[in-house]
From TrEMBL:
Secretion signal, residue range per the UniProt entry: none
InterPro entries attached to this UniProt entry: Homeodomain-like_sf, HTH-type_TetR-like_transc_reg, HTH_TetR
Species in which this protein is naturally found: Acetobacter orleanensis
Name of the protein: HTH tetR-type domain-containing protein
Pfam family, one: TetR_N
A molecular-function term among this protein's GO annotations: DNA-binding transcription factor activity
Amino acid sequence: MDSNTSSEKREPIQPRRAGGRQRVAELLAAASDLMAERGYEATTMAEIAARAGAKIGSLYRFFPNKEAIAEALLQHHAAIMNEEYEALAARAADLSPEELADILIDLMVILYPRVKSLPALMDARTDRAEIRHTSRSRALQGIAAALQVCASGLDATAAQDIAVVVLNNMKTMLGMVLKDVPTTPAAPDELRSMNRLYLAARLGSYQRE
């Protein structure tokens, strides 16, 4: 059996017991760490098992091949982001535009350790454009929903327009933290201030119900 793929067509096992669910979580966390460090193609099943402190047979018990792990990670990352945006929308009515701006600008930075293999996973997929589009749409919908809860008079079109600007600010903040874009020690705080002023100006004129 190849260390990365298998001819088996079975679906990954969904454990019912807490111990099994914990083991799957550990295996996925190990896979995510390795793929973020080395890339999808360079990561092997044996390395994933070793990083998780598991026997290779335990890994194959839950996942027939590396492709199944990648699919599980994509679903896991999507669930994490959905939960975060839903939780933000649930509390946005009690936030000022400035408070919401501060939460949003750092959201990707906070989420990154939990979804850090997403870029490597997308790079290895033939449907990367579709995955990227879906991920972007999910983020825009989540941001727009929080904006409309915070400012109840904000219409859907304006919320989407503002969400695009905020999402780009969020990506820039993550890039600064990861040193993927030009930055200085004070630049992240400047970006936070800019984002706060922008949302205060755009949302402040809308009356809450």
